[in-house]
User: Which sequence fits this backbone?
């Protein structure tokens, strides 16, 4: 009876109208149709900065109706329950999978100028054995927050909010606690939504064919002291991302990030003012400061062909010397990553059928830093790829949406290596690169070889025009490695009902 009442409440809530300036929560299922519509008829829209602003989506597609989301009109207040109730069985481990999440989301928008979005939820779960092993090691629930005591093995609470102010059509100021995703792929090598939420302040500037995001965040580095106690070190990031729609079918973007810490030991906050300049490149500033901060540079490229085909890619440079690359001696300091991907919407004219394939390449020691706490991570989770570094990955998916139904199968194959005990071959981004094994002769796969194959096949039914879905499926994860601590094989069958406000990843 209680479950039926909850379902009715969720369905009714999901029919509420969506406020205009609110951001559309980034969830893969709901963005499939949105991105297809934008690529088919969107004008001067930047799909590589997520989550999307509902007002900008509406303006780009020339319609008040956003696929998979509520119709937008002048309604300016809404409430929505947040839920994720699932169960299943990990067959080969003979373990039960349970997950129960509950919370509330509220938002308010005023005349497309001001909006506030608040979300709070708590969860408890028994996850597959390989997920449980990661949580026990890091004390952090994947994609969520620090693990705490509660009814089941993993327990967490998350509070996020987003305050938007749009003084003109050119500028939007954004402050809150949440996360972002940069790119057009399933993974991002620049900034992903894998890690838990973090405090941020962002400035979005839209002028002509350009969208420029300044993102300032406060992160935390978690690690354990010799006594086994969890310690926390505060750090900051300053990110610039410039997206340029060169042509209606071509986008070129530039990325730079700086990870730094408090230089004044007497202050508990002390943001570096030089990194607040919204128009500079950080490398020259870093050198002028005599700084050893962690600087990353990169970019993205996207081609749209015949409105149905998307070619995209990313390049991320952590450290790089062309002379050493030409020498082909495997210098450790050539730390870089690149991505190439392809999307095909409405395959062979079948509406709702989509194909996707992506390749990721990440060199050893990428995203790590000499100062152990200035890695490109947050709360023991990478801000880029879940595999860390020292790997290659192929991931591909096929999905089909028909009315309220969604069918999807996804495969992920990661080949690389992990670090043996007491060694540093460049897989773990939370180690200092000063403990590297060799200066030369570094290659992807050094260390203890490891290969992971993952497949998830599922069917979902969208119960409302926004968010709520019922789903069922099966996922298989197989590990090949000589290290007994590399992970375990898993076969999981599952079913549940949830509101799609966030992505939850188990394909690592």
Assistant:
């Amino acid at each position: 009876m209680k479950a039926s009442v909850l379902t009715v409440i969720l369905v009714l809530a999901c029919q509420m109208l969506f406020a205009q300036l609110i951001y559309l929560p980034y969830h893969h299922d709901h963005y499939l149709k949105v991105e297809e519509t934008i690529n088919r008829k969107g004008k001067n829209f930047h799909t590589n900065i997520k989550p999307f602003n509902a007002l900008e989506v509406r303006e780009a597609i020339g319609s008040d109706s956003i696929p998979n989301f509520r119709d937008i009109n002048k309604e300016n207040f809404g409430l929505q329950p947040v839920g994720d109730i699932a169960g299943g069985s990990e067959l080969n481990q003979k373990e039960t999978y349970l997950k129960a999440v509950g919370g509330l989301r509220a938002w308010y928008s005023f005349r497309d100028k001001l909006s506030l979005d608040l979300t709070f939820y708590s969860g408890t779960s028994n996850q597959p054995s390989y997920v449980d092993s990661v949580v026990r090691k890091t004390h952090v629930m994947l994609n969520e927050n620090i693990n705490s005591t509660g009814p089941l093995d993993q327990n967490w609470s998350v509070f996020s909010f987003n305050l938007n102010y749009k003084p003109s059509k050119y500028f939007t100021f954004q402050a809150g606690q949440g996360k972002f995703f940069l790119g057009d792929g399933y993974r991002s090598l620049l900034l992903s939504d894998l890690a838990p939420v973090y405090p941020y302040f962002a400035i979005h500037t839209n002028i002509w064919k350009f969208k420029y995001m300044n993102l300032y965040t406060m992160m935390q580095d978690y690690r354990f002291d010799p006594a086994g106690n969890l310690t926390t070190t505060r750090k900051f990031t300053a990110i610039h991302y410039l997206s340029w729609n060169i042509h209606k079918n071509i986008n070129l973007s530039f990325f730079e990030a700086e990870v730094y810490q408090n230089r004044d030991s007497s202050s508990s906050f002390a943001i570096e003012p030089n990194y607040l300049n919204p128009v500079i490149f950080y490398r020259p500033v870093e050198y002028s400061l005599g700084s050893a901060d962690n600087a990353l540079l990169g970019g993205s490229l996207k081609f749209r062909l015949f409105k149905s085909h998307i070619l995209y890619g990313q390049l991320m440079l952590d450290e790089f010397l062309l002379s050493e690359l030409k020498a082909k001696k495997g210098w450790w300091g050539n730390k870089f990553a690149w991505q190439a991907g392809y999307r095909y919407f409405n395959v062979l004219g079948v509406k709702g059928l989509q194909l996707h394939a992506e390749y990721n390449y990440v060199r050893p020691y990428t995203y790590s830093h000499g100062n152990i706490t200035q890695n490109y991570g947050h709360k023991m989770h990478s801000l880029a790829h879940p595999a860390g570094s020292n790997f290659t990955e192929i991931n591909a998916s096929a999905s089909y949406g028909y009315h309220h139904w969604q069918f999807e199968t996804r495969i992920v194959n990661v080949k690389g290596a992990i670090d043996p005990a007491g060694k540093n071959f460049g897989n773990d981004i939370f180690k200092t690169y000063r403990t590297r094994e060799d200066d030369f002769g570094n290659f992807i796969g050094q260390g203890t070889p490891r290969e992971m194959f993952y497949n998830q096949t599922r069917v979902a039914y969208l119960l409302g025009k926004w968010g709520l879905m019922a789903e069922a499926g099966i996922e298989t994860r197989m590990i090949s490695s000589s290290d007994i601590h590399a992970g375990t094989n898993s076969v999981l069958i599952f079913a549940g009902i949830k509101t799609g406000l966030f992505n939850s990843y188990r394909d690592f």
The first strand starts at residue 23 and ends at 24. The mean pLDDT is 86. Residues 49 and 481 are 36 Å apart (CA to CA). The longest helix spans residues 28-41.
